[in-house]
Design brief:
heterodimer; A: 395 residues; alpha+beta; Butyryl-CoA Dehydrogenase, subunit A, domain 2; 3 domains; 4-stranded mixed beta sheet; 4-stranded antiparallel beta sheet; globular; B: 383 residues; Butyryl-Coa Dehydrogenase, subunit A, domain 1; Butyryl-CoA Dehydrogenase, subunit A, domain 3; 16% strand
């Protein structure tokens, strides 16, 4: 066990830091320094820059486009992205369906999909939940019926995050309703933009943004060649993918950004003759959260290290999701508290009232209430820990 | 001692509850939040007719001689429907100060029409740098002839966008952070030199940014003694904090009730989710916090009429802390238990969540009240 950095890793950090400064386009850089929030287009612009450098998927095996970095380098890279406040990338391709295809896809599927996930040419979204299948995901009802070489899809998905930008959706469909509900599910990839019968309807969140959509399927034909894993074996796929999702969904990097922002707001918020940062008890609140985040970071490193020696992330990733999303929420709550009266503001509050660094905080504070709900609610994570790790008896 | 409602109070509560159910369900607020004003003058006029705007004022001032508790009971019921009419800025803040400090003529001119629901009022106290320190005031009023000239900037002025008159806190003496030297002036909403910028808020209500560029007012617009406004201002803000606890109570109760109903109705894994013990325990904890909020809300409403400033402040600070901690527990878990739909704008729960967070950040947040409480109760380090 050794957490110190080698001279090579230190040199690597310098290289990454310098490259980011040179590579970030001026507009993105200005926004990053102002603490602003990035639009989809800006995320994709940065995605493509990372791709051209070969750094867009450090967590992928080298032979399919990863970087071949060790855990230390990956960690350093992540830290430097946070430090520069670069746009965060859409996770649906890079950390969700990509790794799943690497694990379970056919050679043809890998060849067809992985390069375009890497390049950012194709954007993905996730079709898991349905109005009546939330925490009880396995009760999903969107039907896939065989017709020649195709499946015909009928039903509805909800919480399809940023589906309005997506080219492709990975989804869970019911292919057999006769037996145990987990055993009749198939994992299918569908072309959102070019398949007649697929309709995406974004809806407004409490964050005031259109982050989620309802996605409807009406006699939508999708080739059976787009199924991943065996027919009726989708539940295994779903769980494997959720485990990948959960390692990233803990949001260590995001929480670091929020705490960074919180310190900045506290420094720039006048109180009497000084600033809020002079207030010992407020500083202490930030420090406590930062220290807890450090524990989580080490847990994440341990999980990644285990994955590096060949084990796919298992139920342990539930801890990352559970604790990480709570820290994420607390860090936005702390930003709101730092803002004082400014926390009354909203996305459309004039800039002369709300400083730029505070502009998106209230929206994220509201939207991130979803963090303990999406990706398997934290109640479900606790169930997974109790049942699959602790093997506690059930009723 | 008696913590139960009197018969008259029960009648009042029932009539407000009926109004909310029939005339002002959350749907009405939803429509109003997309309008420029954010609330409806004809509903305001009806509230005047009902006498709700006057319950806490003495009879000789056109009020109904009631106590603050009666107003708190009204606010609680209005909270259950997210009723957006500006009772707190108009009745509690500016109205309270006019009632307490105003001359007969000032009360006739500014308070009486408000009590009748013909006008609305606002109090401009916050500034960019002030956070929750009322004496951190850079807006100045200079004497000119018999009158005054006001210059400065006020932020987050509740109902400042719509009020016919705004009571403005300005410094007539001393330096920016002095406790002495603050004065109150009644400024017309359309006064020359006053620029009002409407600021939409997170909760769908409106505030204003006020820029005062040499606003001239006559001597008759000075409210109370020049230079000595701080104790009255603190009194008014305390009562606003108590009012926030009352309105917040309605929102907390509503969120709690809706959550329990949802736990019984929403089925997953073939059973209502309320049958899971983990969620039952959560609901039980929410219930406990809701009742603690109710207790401190009553405490604060009674303390709001207390002559003893220390007692008033300590009780109200305790209630405001409970609104921010216990109330937060309820609102946070309400959204969590509703799951994904709790984060959609279409569901009402998010609206309650936002309004509660706004109330928690007004009139001193939890940290500020904890610090004040320690000062009042003689907690001190040796330093």
């Amino acid at each position: 066990m050794d957490l110190s950095y080698t001279p090579e890793q230190l040199a690597f950090r310098k290289e990454v830091r310098q490259w980011i400064q040179v590579a970030m386009p001026a507009a993105i850089k200005a926004k990053a320094e102002g603490g602003g929030h990035f639009e989809h287009e800006e995320q994709m612009e940065w995605h493509k820059i990372l791709y051209r450098k070969g750094w867009v998927a450090p967590h992928w095996p080298k032979e399919v486009g990863g970087t071949g970095w060790d855990i230390g380098q990956r960690h350093i890279f992540g830290e430097e992205l946070v430090r520069a406040n670069t746009p965060q990338l859409s996770p649906f391709g890079l950390t969700m369906v990509g790794p799943l295809l690497i694990q379970f896809g056919t050679p043809e599927q890998k060849q067809r999909f992985l390069p375009k996930i890497l390049s950012g040419e194709e954007v993905w979204c996730q079709g898991y939940s349905e109005p009546n299948a939330g925490s009880d995901l396995a009760s999903l009802q969107l039907r896939a019926e065989k017709d020649g070489d195709d499946y015909i899809l009928n039903g509805q998905k909800t919480w399809t995050t940023y589906a309005q930008y997506a080219d492709w959706i990975f989804l869970l469909a019911r292919t057999d309703a006769s037996g145990k509900k987990q055993e009749g599910i198939t994992f299918i990839l569908a072309d959102v933009k070019n398949t007649p019968g697929i309709t995406v309807k974004p809806f407004l969140t409490t964050g005031g943004t259109y982050a989620f959509s309802e996605t409807w399927f009406q006699n939508a034909h999708v080739p059976q060649a787009n199924k991943v894993g065996p027919e009726n074996g989708g539940w295994t796929m779903a769980k494997a993918l959720l485990a990948h999702e959960r390692t990233g969904i803990g949001g260590v990097a995001e929480s670091k950004r929020w705490l960074q922002l919180c310190k900045r707001i506290a420094r720039e918020t006048p109180v009497g003759k000084g600033s809020l940062f002079d207030d010992k008890s407020f500083r202490e609140r930030i420090a406590r959260l930062e220290m807890r985040l450090r524990s989580l970071e080490l847990l994440q490193l341990r999980t990644l290290a285990a994955a590096q020696v060949g084990r796919a992330p298992g139920p342990e990733s539930s801890i990352l999701k559970l604790v990480g999303t709570e820290i994420q929420q607390e860090s936005t709550e702390l930003c709101m508290d730092a803002m004082g009266h400014d926390a009354l503001g909203w996305l459309d509050s004039p800039g002369e009232v709300l400083p730029a660094i505070e502009q998106g905080v209230a929206s994220s504070f509201n939207y991130l209430r979803a963090a303990t709900i999406y990706g398997g609610s934290n109640e479900i994570q606790r169930n997974i820990i109790a049942k699959q790790i602790l093997r506690l008896p059930t009723l | 001692m008696n913590v139960d409602l009197t018969e008259e109070q029960q009648i009042l509560v029932d009539s407000v509850a009926k109004f909310v159910a029939n005339d002002s369900p959350v749907e009405r607020f939803r429509k109003l939040r997309d309008t420029e004003r954010g609330w409806d003058p004809s509903t305001w006029a009806r509230m005047g007719e009902f006498g709700w705007l006057g319950v806490a004022f003495p009879e000789e001032q056109g009020g109904f001689g009631g106590r603050f508790v009666d107003l708190a009971l009204i606010l609680e019921q209005l909270g259950r429907g997210l009723v957006p009419e500006p009772l707190v800025p108009s009745v509690v803040l500016a109205g309270g100060l006019l009632s307490k400090l105003g001359t007969h003529a000032q009360r006739e001119q500014f308070l009486a029409p408000m009590i009748e629901g013909r006008t609305s009022l606002a109090l401009a106290y916050a500034e960019r740098q002030s956070r929750y320190s009322l004496h951190d005031c850079q807006t100045r009023a200079e004497k000119r002839g018999a009158g005054w000239v006001l210059s400065g900037e006020k932020t987050w002025v509740l109902n400042g966008h719509a009020a016919e008159q705004i009571v403005v806190v300005a410094r007539t003496a001393g330096d920016a952070l002095d406790r002495e030297g603050l004065s109150l002036f009644v400024v017309d909403g359309d006064a020359a030199g006053l620029e009002r910028t409407r600021v939409p808020g997170m909760d769908g209500q409106r505030t204003a940014l006020l820029r005062l560029r040499g606003v001239e007012v006559g001597a008759d617009r000075l409210l109370g003694e020049a230079g000595g406004a701080l104790p009255s201002l603190e009194w008014a803000l305390d009562r606003a904090a108590a009012a926030a606890c009352a309105e917040g109570q309605g929102e907390i109760q509503e969120l709690f009730d809706r959550t329990v109903a949802y736990l019984k109705q929403r089925a997953q894994f073939g059973v209502p989710i309320g049958s899971f013990q983990a969620l039952q325990h959560r609901a039980a904890d929410m219930y406990a916090e809701t009742e603690l909020c109710r207790s401190t809300m009553i405490l604060a409403a009674i303390a709001a009429d207390s002559e003893d400033a220390d007692e008033r402040q300590a009780e109200i600070s305790a209630a405001k802390l409970q609104l921010s901690r216990g109330g937060w527990f309820v609102q946070e878990h309400a959204i969590q238990l509703f799951g994904g739909i709790g984060v959609t704008d279409e569901q009402d729960e998010g609206l309650f969540f936002k309004r509660l967070r706004v109330l928690q950040g007004l009139y001193g947040d939890a940290d500020w009240h904890v610090a004040r409480y320690q000062g009042l109760k003689g907690f001190s380090s040796e330093a």
